[in-house]
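Continuing the series of single-chain predictions for the mutant panel. This is the parent chain; the variants come on the following pages.
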Amino acid sequence: SVLLSALALSGVRPALAEGVVRRRLDSLVADGVDSGRRRPGGAASGNGFRFGNRWFRRFTDRKAGDRDLPDLVDQIIRSLRSGESLPHAIRSAAAARTADDHRRLVADLDAGVPVGEAITNWGAAAGSPLRDLAAVALGLAATSGGSVATVLGGVSESLRERIALEREVRALSSQARASAMVMIVAPVGFAFLGASADSRVATLLLTRPLGWACCIAGVSLNAAGGWWMSRMIAGTK
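Parent structure:
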């Protein structure tokens, strides 16, 4: 989000930035619910805040879970090297986390679900490429045996490299995103300023077929340009 990007550019750590935004959203949700109780029509606003808060929590939980994956795998490796079995090592590492996906993984293992199936369910729950990589590695380790700790050590390093690469790409593309936003907003701002400075411009744009055609063409081209630039920026990720 824009707020998270601004906090990150100002030097705030990502986890701390997410905590700041999450606390602010919790405050807004509480305000929205209270407003819904006090006035007619306010319930819809409160429901909207709750939906936004749930979406933000899922998004930040997934991001935080991705950043925590190398530490999760490292903890599994340490448990394996201390003599624990793979299912017990996975359960111990997952139990130390608070995310819902990890709690479900622990519950599946406690319920006797085969470790391969439990790992597959855990990997599919997040919809994250990094989680998929970790789940595939753990699933192969559960079925193939061998030097599991060594293999997982390589996976942990790969996860760290990919996370570092994603952070670098986000940092390098932040200027491109800002430039794209300026290019999208600038035409609208110039049109507004021109209409404010000269009433004839506003009359032409708002009351004449030629002005309507210009507005439609301008908005269409602006939307197409915004879509094209967003595709270009997304292609770097």
